[in-house]
Amino acid sequence: MKNNKIVYLAVAAALGSLSTSAYSAGFQLAETSATGLGRAFAGEAAMADNASAQFRNPALLSYLADTQVSAGGIYVNPNVDIDGENSQHGQTSTNDVAHDAVIPNFYFAHQIDDRFTAGLALATNFGMETDLGNDFTGTQFGNEAAVTTFEINPNLAWKATEQLRVGAGLRYVLGEGSIGAQANTTGSIKPIPAGSTLKYMEGDDRAWGWQLGVAYDINDNNRIGFNYRSEVELTLEGHAEGLSFDQVAGKITKQPKSTYNGSMALTLPATAEFSSLHQLTEQWAVHTSLNWTEWSSFDKLEADIPYLNGAQEVKVENWEDNYRFAIGTTYQWDQKLTLRSGIAYDTSAVSDKNRTLTIPETDRTWLSVGAGYDVTSKLTLDAAFTYIFAKDAPVKEARDGINSESEQNAEANFGAFEGETTGNVWLLGVQASYRF
After folding, report:
1. What's the pLDDT at 18?
2. Does residue 234 sit in helix, strand or coil?
3. 339: exposed, middle or buried (C-beta count within 10 Å: 0-12, 13-18, 19+)?
4. 108-to-36, 167, 253, 347 alpha-carbon distances in Å
5. 3-class DSSP state for residue 406?
6. What whole-number distance in Å separates Cα of residue 9 and Cα of residue 13?
7. Which residues, other chains included, contact 110 with Cβ-Cβ below 8 Å and sequence gap of 6+?
8. Nearest 5°: CA angle at 27, between 25 and 33?
9. What pLDDT is stored for residue 25 in this prediction?
10. Is residue 395 part of a domain?
11. Phi and psi, residue 168, nearest 5°
12. What are the percentages of helix, strand and coil residues in the chain, rounded to 5?
């Protein structure tokens, strides 16, 4: 990676580890607060519990009084396994392909006057890291993939009327990523030794995006909210290496190199959320969310390498837009203790036909519980636990009907893979919120 990441490293050091893995659809992260985690992130665009609400809808800042700070983290433990058969080498499997992660966050909100409230969010909602290991005979199609992002998000909310709130924010996204494929067996056609890098690309970039949100109080007991976050186009500048690029260099320049300077475009997709909050009694509330993510923008990865006269295929993805459905409840036990629960369903961003080994994406069901406790009139502590059931799903590479020369060559030389991905995830979050 580049060495000029002073801002990124400084913020990362302040907040802790930013190693992340994908636990919502695709490589999207829903884990933005422990408060929301306790209700499976149901109602996030309509609920203003604390300063963290601005990341899912900046309009919610206008419900917060005075000055507030909220900070915390969510520990994620995934258990994702792949088991199947290589057409040339027989049974093969790999376990725990997704890494554990700690996802930190920090939020600040300040009421300027009766109409305007400003805020700052330091968090992330895209990231992943997978590693298929050295013994799995499917790594010719991909042995690792990683995306790490961090977002600096200033926001401003306006109380337009007693019922309508409007908010907007800028998004400064720092991102880096890598993807690779490796020969873990000796080639059957070309004598490529086991352990050879077939292709690898890494890079980093910074880019801008934006978000808009509204919240509307239908009456004292019912609220709806909507938020839209723009897509962000990253151009990950770095280097590429591997035998696949060397073969192209041999044809074009006759002089393969150890590494090739270049870049890879990566789109962080646009998202939208519609939420509702319904206060049924003084103690009970029900809240819902419908989320949409434009994963269809993630169709392929290409390395732009000037030395090789332009774009070189890294991976064909062919993802699809996905949806998330969530419903949760809040119960006010007494003046200090709040109990939360929720259930959510994430649809997969890929069809069975397009699922890959490096991102074994599948449908997920969330079950969540959480609690908040007012230690004092100014300090609130939140904790939450979630268990995610990942649907068992088939995975096959080379994929049928995919026009990918690299997949076809990998199958011919090292065998095809056909099998199944299985898994589950558990998450534990904590958070502290303070009102000045």
Report:
1. 42
2. strand
3. middle
4. 17, 15, 54, 32
5. helix
6. 6
7. 66, 67, 68, 117, 118, 119
8. 80
9. 64
10. yes
11. -150, 155
12. 10, 55, 35
DSSP 401: T
- What is d(CA 171, CA 99) in angstroms, rounded to the nearest whole number? 27
- Full domain range(s) for residue 367: 6-435
pLDDT tens digits, 376-433: 999 999 999 999 999 999 999 988 888 888 888 888 989 999 999 998 999 999 999 9
Q: Residue 242: left if φ>0, alpha if ψ -120 to 50, beta else—which one?
A: left
**Which CATH number belongs to the domain containing residue 359 in this structure?**
2.40.160.60
CA atoms of 168 and 237, how far apart (whole Å):
30
Low-confidence stretches of the chain (pLDDT beneath 70)? 1-26
Beta partners for residue 387, in sequence order: 367, 426
**Cα(421)–Cα(82) distance, integer angstroms:** 4
How would DSSP label each residue in 37-85?
HTTTTTTTTT--SSGGGGGT-GGGGGG--SEEEEEEEEEEEEEEEEEEE
Q: How many domains are contained in the chain?
A: 1
Residue 179 has which token pair? Answer: 């993807």
* Token pair listed for 237: 């500048």
Q: Which of 114, 121, 122, 120 is nearest to 158 (CA)?
A: 114
Q: Supply the pLDDT for residue 24.
A: 56
Residue 1 lies in a domain: no
Q: What is the predicted pLDDT for the residue at 29? A: 77
Q: Cα–Cα distance between 4 and 19 in angstroms, integer?
A: 19
Tokens of 12: 């990362």
Q: Confirm whether 417 is domain-assigned.
A: yes
How far apart are alpha carbons 330 and 341 in whole angstroms?
Answer: 7
- Written as one letter, the residue type at 191 is P
Residue keyed to tokens 């169709």: 299
C-alpha span between 161 and 114 (Å, rounded): 11
Give the integer Cα–Cα distance in Å for 354 and 349: 10
pLDDT at 358: 87
Which amino acid does the sequence have at 73? G
Residue 101: name the closest of 31, 206, 10, 38 by CA. 31
> Is 118 inside a domain boundary?
yes
Q: Which two tokens stand for residue 205?
A: 């970039």
